[in-house]
Design brief:
heterodimer, A: 276 residues, Rossmann fold, six-stranded mixed β-sheet, 10 helices, globular, B: alpha/beta, four-stranded antiparallel β-sheet, 63% helix
């Protein structure tokens, strides 16, 4: 019939689940044969057949070229998008079983495109936890290596951030966004290329801080720099929407061509380059 | 304030009347015509009643022929009036659109001349609203309020004169009520005007909030901040609702209140006039026909006053819009006192002379005595004790001295906020230095015309801006007169040719601003080709490869290396592998150069660079 082609009434893509589970057990993540397409079209997949188990408290590095599917992969964890095929489990349950707020409160994501909002630094940080004390704010900022530069501002933590965060530098913005995410005390922390504008030394300090401050949190670090992921428990190499290899830095150096190529290209400048 | 307003009025008039003299004269003429025609109709009423109808009733004389003639004339007059109204409404609409087009053009032209510092201190939304909101209020003013107010003014003056002529005492009554009416109107206009102003402000807030939340959509989701955002939005939306309600409410009751006064005027004049017709004599007498005409005039008179009062708010808002438009136009353009220009030249026997077909570029330096010196453009850049501050208070760069000889690669490294990008912004004079000197091929860069200075160098940034158009168009952006072959040659040099030719449409693939299917690396390759086609002696690369993955970087890097050959290059990078082979590396810290030298020297020194490079630092 002619009107059978009329699309159904607009419904939100991501719908809150009916089952009421009020907490996420732990930071355990499972991808079960997951494929994903932004258009929902199985012919245009940007992730194909992902099978992966990340144990709670693990530190996972993800490496891969632009367009290899790194960001798409992690966006399925807090349900910014739903898997087209297969399913994603967090804390042992399908992500679709949680209430969205419950899930997202347990998963902190520092996005590639960091956004700060008009308001003071304090107000921005409290997005992570509106009841956080001033001491807690300083604590997370120290961990994110943001405290040193914030203290140099005349107004300190009350410095007003302009719309879009135009009055702080790229590296400063990234560190503020990491601090904001830490304040959530998440079960899972995802850093999506969040330290690209931060120098290698500060980057290392941040990772060191994470290790000691939130040891039980699952940490997923997407990066371009090998140095940012090489001390992770396991490193995932993504290529063309598939997992090319998983392993430690040493294993991948030995067995994975892509990883070695990336590593070599970053070492070209000198043997000791960016070992921090 | 008053002075500015006057300026705004004069300039607005120049846009409306000055630039469209013919159309505007027609509009004014038609308004006059329709005003007079409306008035004349009423005067005819007096003639018809007194000279024909009453006469026929009294004497029984047959005056139908004459009456018909008068009626026909009256009909013709009304018709002319109606045509006049139609015509001026149409014409003013055309003028309105023309003025808006000219204003938008002028704004855009002006915008290209403003310095970067202007855009640092104004949000995009702010500037956009001048193009959209403010021009729209102005359009309403020009197309609707202005003609209505002029036509009301004409009617008020004419009808008042005729009323005076008909009866002094009745006009006195009208005047009395009108004064009260005006006082009430003034109060209401200023009340609603206050809320119209607040309504505009809240509208701006709502727009700004939506824009900001739109940009941060994903962040809102991952922080479950949706509810809080909705609460905040409801608050400012409520404010808008409140102000709009008050502003609209006041202006909505204006009409009935004014109409009430109009009726009162009518009633008082009818009673007084009736008594005068029956019992009055001398100055206080009147005829029935005159009275009916007079009452008609009162209607027109009070309607016109109501209309002008009604239009006051829109006039005030239009004015405010115009003030903002002119304020934007009045911003100081980027100062350019340079007089040294970039010309094509030819070198023969060690002598350089200007030659449009020449294969080299030269700086043309006209001296005060009329003589001209030509200096070959080589890319020799010298910083001599340069200080810089964005706001004149906090010094960002301290005592920077450095030199780059033609063909050398100079790198800046250091933590974020150390001042690396600031230095490069000074070379192309996005900002002017506070103290010291920057010389380019021995010429103080303040003496070089900015467009010529910028033409002689290319800037490659981390975020690539491609414009809507084909890939070929985008490459040609580097030099508008480049041929297709030259663009393709540049793409080959940049290493972009291989991926472009694999695209189905090749060089004619259309790119749509930000929404294109090219990867970041591919976009960067196009931007490098764009720089290559410009073929400048100096290049600045600011983190050009930091958001590209390292595999793609290898390709991009190869393109850049080819491009850098024989040019003076300033490189900013976090990846030390990118800067390693520089002639000199400047390590910046808090706006000062704390170390300088070649890679080997700096490693030898075991200072900051050594730490950055080897990671030999202690973790706390």
């Amino acid at each position: 019939m002619a009107w059978s082609t009329v699309p159904p009434a607009e419904v939100p893509d991501i719908e809150d689940s009916k089952v009421n589970i009020d907490s996420v057990a732990d930071g355990d993540i499972v991808f079960e044969n997951v494929s994903f397409s932004y258009a929902g079209d199985p012919d245009k997949l940007c992730l194909t057949g992902i099978d992966l188990h990340i144990r709670s408290g693990e530190t996972i590095g993800i490496i891969g070229g632009t367009g290899s599917g790194k960001t798409s992969l992690v966006q399925l964890i807090p349900r910014l998008y739903d898997a087209t095929l297969g399913r994603v489990l967090v804390g042992g349950r399908d992500v679709r079983d949680y209430e969205l707020d419950t899930l997202r409160n347990a998963v902190a994501v520092v996005l590639q495109k960091n956004v700060l909002f008009q308001g003071t630094i304090k107000e921005n940080l409290r997005w992570g936890d509106e009841n956080a004390t001033d001491e807690e704010l300083v604590e997370v900022c120290k961990l994110a290596q943001a405290d040193p530069f914030i203290s140099t501002f005349p107004d300190g933590y009350d410095t007003f951030i302009e719309q879009g965060g135009t009055n702080v530098s790229g590296g400063q913005k990234q560190r503020l966004c990491i601090a904001r995410a830490l304040l959530k005390k998440p079960k899972i922390l995802i850093l999506d290329d969040s330290t690209s504008a931060v120098d290698t030394r500060t980057d290392a300090l941040i990772r060191e801080g994470l290790k000691t401050y939130i040891p039980s949190t699952t940490k997923i670090i997407i990066a371009q720099r090998i140095s940012s992921v090489q001390d992770a428990d396991r490193i995932i190499v993504m290529d063309g929407g598939r997992i090319d290899a998983v392993g430690t830095h040493e294993e991948l150096l030995k067995n994975n061509a892509i990883y070695r190529e990336v590593y070599d290209s970053q070492q070209k400048g000198g043997n000791e380059d960016e070992q921090a | 304030m008053n002075k500015l307003k006057k300026g705004v009025m004069a300039r607005l008039l120049d846009y409306i009347a000055g630039r469209h003299k013919r159309e505007f004269t027609v509009v004014i003429a038609c308004i006059l015509l329709s005003g007079v025609a409306g008035m004349a109709g009423n005067i005819f009423m007096q003639v018809i009643i007194d000279d024909y109808i009453l006469k026929m009733v009294k004497t029984g004389e047959d005056l139908f022929g004459g009456l018909l003639a008068v009626l026909l004339i009256m009909g013709a007059v009304y018709l002319i009036g109606a045509l006049g109204t139609l015509f001026y409404n149409r014409t003013i609409g055309v003028i309105g659109q023309k003025v808006l087009k000219e204003i938008r053009d002028d704004l855009f032209v002006k915008m290209q001349k403003l310095p970067i510092s202007f855009f640092d201190s104004h949000t995009n939304g702010d500037i956009m609203s001048v193009y959209t909101n403010d021009t729209d209020t102005l359009r309403q003013f020009i197309v609707q309020s202005l003609p209505m107010m002029v036509s009301s003014f004409v009617t008020i003056i004419f009808s008042f004169c005729v009323m005076l002529h008909y009866s002094l005492p009745l006009t006195g009554i009208v005047l009395l009520v009108t004064v009260i009416m005006l006082i009430v109107a003034k109060c209401m206009v200023s009340y609603s005007g206050r809320y119209f102003k607040r309504q505009q402000d809240s509208m701006g807030k709502v727009n700004g909030y939506i824009e900001e939340m739109f940009g941060g959509l994903k962040v809102i989701k991952v922080f479950c901040h949706g509810r809080a955002a909705v609460d905040d939005f409801k608050k400012i939306n409520e404010e808008l609702y409140d102000n709009a309600l008050r502003a609209g409410g006041a202006s909505n009751i204006m009409m009935p209140v004014m109409a009430g006064f109009g009726n009162l005027e009518y009633l008082l004049a009818a009673v007084a006039g009736g008594a005068m017709a029956l019992f009055g004599d001398g100055m206080f007498s009147t005829t029935i026909g005159t009275l009916i005409s007079f009452l008609g005039l009162i209607r027109q008179f009070s309607n016109s006053i109501t209309q002008s009062a009604q239009q006051m708010n829109s006039a005030i808002m239009g004015f405010a819009g115009a003030s903002r438009i002119f304020a934007l136009m009045d911003n100081e353009p980027e100062a350019d006192e340079g007089f040294v220009t970039l010309v094509h030249a030819k070198e023969e026997n060690g002598l350089i002379r200007e030659d449009a077909a020449g294969n080299i570029y030269a700086w043309k330096y006209p001296h005060e005595d009329g003589s001209v010196t030509y200096t070959k453009v080589e890319g020799n850049v010298v910083f001599d004790h340069v200080d810089f501050s964005y706001d004149g208070k906090n010094t960002i760069l301290h005592d920077i001295s450095l030199y780059a000889k033609p063909g050398q690669k100079i790198a800046f490294v250091g933590a974020t906020g150390a001042g690396k990008t600031t230095i490069t912004n000074l070379i192309n004079r996005f900002y002017d230095i506070a103290d010291g000197k920057i010389r380019y091929d021995g010429i103080n860069i303040n003496k070089i015309r900015k467009p010529d200075l910028r033409r002689s160098m290319s800037l490659i940034l981390q975020d690539v801006n491609l414009f809507t158009g084909t890939i070929l168009d985008n490459i040609r952006y580097g030099r508008l007169d480049a041929t297709d072959e030259e663009c393709i040659e540049a793409a080959k040099l940049a290493g972009a040719d291989s991926f472009i030719t694999r695209l189905p449409e090749g060089y004619y693939t259309v790119i749509n601003g930000d929404e294109n299917n090219l990867s970041q690396g591919q976009c960067q390759l196009i931007s490098i080709a764009r720089a290559a086609v410009a073929d400048p002696p100096v290049m600045i690369m600011d983190e050009a490869t930091s958001s590209i993955d390292t595999r793609t970087e290898a390709i991009v890097q190869a393109g850049m290396d080819r491009l850098m050959e024989g040019r003076t290059v300033f490189v900013i990078a976090h990846r030390l592998s990118t800067v390693r082979n520089s002639k000199a590396i400047m390590v910046l810290d808090h706006g000062r150069i704390i170390e300088r030298g070649s890679h080997e020297q700096l490693i030898e020194e075991k200072g900051q660079y050594y730490q950055l490079y080897t990671g030999a630092f202690e973790l706390e």
